[in-house]
Amino acid sequence: MKAVFFDMDGVLINSEIFYMNGMFAWLKEIGFKGTFEDVCTVIGTTMEKTYEMLYTMLEGKYSLEEIIEMNDTYFKEHPIDYKSIAKEGGLETFKALKDAGYKIAICSSSPLDNIKHVAEVCGFEPYLDFVVSGEQFVQSKPHPEIYLHAAEVLNVTPEECVVVEDSEFGIQAGISAGMIVLALEDKRLPNNQAKATQIINSLSEVQELVEKYSKKC
User: Fold this and answer.
1) pTM of the entire structure?
2) 3-14+83-216 fold
3) Is the model's pLDDT at 217 over the cut of 70?
């Protein structure tokens, strides 16, 4: 193994539960009759795809423009402090992997500006070799393009890469790319992680498992 690729939301920061609770709250305010689990189906998608899915959930009662405005308004009124929700063990894991000679990238479906902001405020930036957003591609997760592109940029083969994900879409993207996929479990969210190579409970497990899979190659 030569490189480790991290998803961001739900992996490096506890943002998924924040976003899903918030989205469910404003949807209920406008009469949404679905469940929290229904809303969670957007996890791992780009914002464009999320809005399209919300439009369908709302049965076309609101335009895409109205949905975007309502979502933006809610989260402007309820801002998130990324540093306070950084996952435990993230910085230590990045430092250990970098000291061991691994290349590190964040490959997230979030907007690139948001990824860079989170990397800066949470202290991840000095350890990163590459940062990429799913919005830079025609096809986002579960398509493997984002991970294959990261491997190409960092001059490693898919077989030399480990992906750390949480969502079903992200896990499928890593598996389809031909990479080892570690799924970080969060029991608060209904993520289907069955296709992952291995499910983990914390980021502190990543380095040891990367080393283990390296020895198997």
Assistant:
1) 0.88
2) Rossmann fold (3.40.50)
3) no
